[in-house]
Amino acid sequence: AQSVSQHNHHVILSEAASLELGCNYSYGGTVNLFWYVQYPGQHLQLLLKYFSGDPLVKGIKGFEAEFIKSKFSFNLRKPSVQWSDTAEYFCAVTGGFKTIFGAGTRLFVKA
Amino acid sequence: GAVVSQHPSRVICKSGTSVKIECRSLDFQATTMFWYRQFPKKSLMLMATSNEGSKATYEQGVEKDKFLINHASLTLSTLTVTSAHPEDSSFYICSARQGEAYEQYFGPGTRLTVT
Lengths: 111, 115
Prior knowledge:
The structure holds two protein chains of two kinds.
Chain A: E1 3-6, E2 10-14, E3 19-21, E4 23-26, E5 31-38, E6 45-50, E7 56-58, E8 64-68, E9 73-78, E10 87-95, E11 98-101, E12 105-110
Parallel strand pairs in A: 2-12
Antiparallel strand pairs in A: 1-4, 3-9, 5-6, 5-10, 7-8, 8-9, 10-11, 10-12
Chain B: E1 4-7, E2 10-13, E3 19-25, E4 32-38, E5 44-51, E6 57-58, E7 67-73, E8 76-81, E9 90-97, E10 105-106, E11 110-114
Parallel strand pairs in B: 2-11
Antiparallel strand pairs in B: 1-3, 3-8, 4-5, 4-9, 5-6, 7-8, 9-10, 9-11
């Protein structure tokens, strides 16, 4: 069965710190990978996506993620976070027809 | 980016009544729409997947007779919560996708409160 695991449920960082959020998935076939963000009071928005090609993908607002097929991972990174990055981040995997979301990671950035 | 709307944004209903939530893709044709339920401080739980013109595929544990889904056109899907109970109170979110090779675009959600 398809599953997505996000390792950190809550992360607290100071501004300018580096961020890495882990995401691992299990699925036997070809996958499309996504990171979505939900800012307080807003709906889910796409941060970045991987379908094929270069496994290092760049998204909006300075975020990037690396697909490591051998590790079934798609970790999200940002070199220097800002207070405005405070939000909940969801990793999602589409395998075949279905998209499964991870449990989410709440990031709080201290100003 | 593509826009998905939901209506209503909030609804309060009495136990035993039915509530319909609409999900519309405003500027693209959605071959597939998804309905999720989001519990407080938890992730999105996929309830069902619907393709235009065909029956919805429900996830395990989701009662198809209670959560009726209709995807009548490429821009509209509806979720009807029938005979609502207080435990159905939740945040319901829809998303829409043009095809398998595309990302999902999410609606703003509908807060359902059953009294």
